[in-house]
Amino acid sequence: MLGSGYDLWPLVPVISLCKKRAESDTSVPDAANKAEKFAQSYADILEDFKKDPESHGGPPDCIDEENANAISLFENVVLVNDAIEDEGKRIENLVRGIFAGNIFDLGSAQLAEVFSKDGMSFLASCQNLVPRPWVIDDLDAFKVKWSKKSWKKAKAVL
After folding, report:
1. Cα distance between residue 97 and residue 146, in whole Å
2. Which pLDDT band, with edges at 50, 70 and 90, does 138 fall under?
3. Could you give the CA distance from residue 22 to residue 26 in angstroms, rounded to a whole number?
4. Which residue has the higher pLDDT, 6 or 19?
5. What are all long-range contacts of 8-16, with beta carbons under 8 Å and residues at least 24 apart?
6. pLDDT (tens digit per residue) in 60-111
7. Is the pLDDT assigned to residue 120 strictly greater than 60?
8. Is the Cβ–Cβ distance between 2 and 8 less than 8 Å?
9. What is the CATH classification number for the domain harbouring 50?
10. Is the separation of the CB atoms in 103 and 69 below 8 Å?
11. Rounded to whole angstroms, how far apart are CA atoms 148 and 142?
12. Does residue 63 sit in the same domain as residue 49?
């Protein structure tokens, strides 16, 4: 059981699941070795949080920083996306933006340091994403579902 109210044990099975999925990716050279390194890194991160949940700053600290960075980029990202006329390409751009946003997580001190050294930006993260098909690629099915506009309510969280 983890201290300070953090309970990460449900994430442990994710390691094995992701490792198996990554090992089976024939498009990645040395997939088994890379999958093992991922699994070990992920397990180390969970262990680090288990020992000291506040070691990377508390949740409010990183959330405030991430929100400030996201808000500063928001207007330009919306303008770029709105300029894409093809709906399918616009949806793919939105999904790529979500992926890049996860990579460009400035709440992570290590990534922030890399970005500042290399001058990397959110837009550069978008452009540097691997091309499709992705390891898990349900984008075409998502586009079809999105185009049907079957939702009843929408909620945006920044």
Report:
1. 16
2. very high
3. 9
4. 19
5. 8/46, 8/49, 8/50, 11/46, 12/46, 14/42, 15/39, 15/42, 15/43, 15/46
6. 666 677 677 778 878 888 898 999 999 999 999 999 888 877 766 544 555 5
7. no
8. yes
9. 1.20.1700.10
10. no
11. 10
12. no
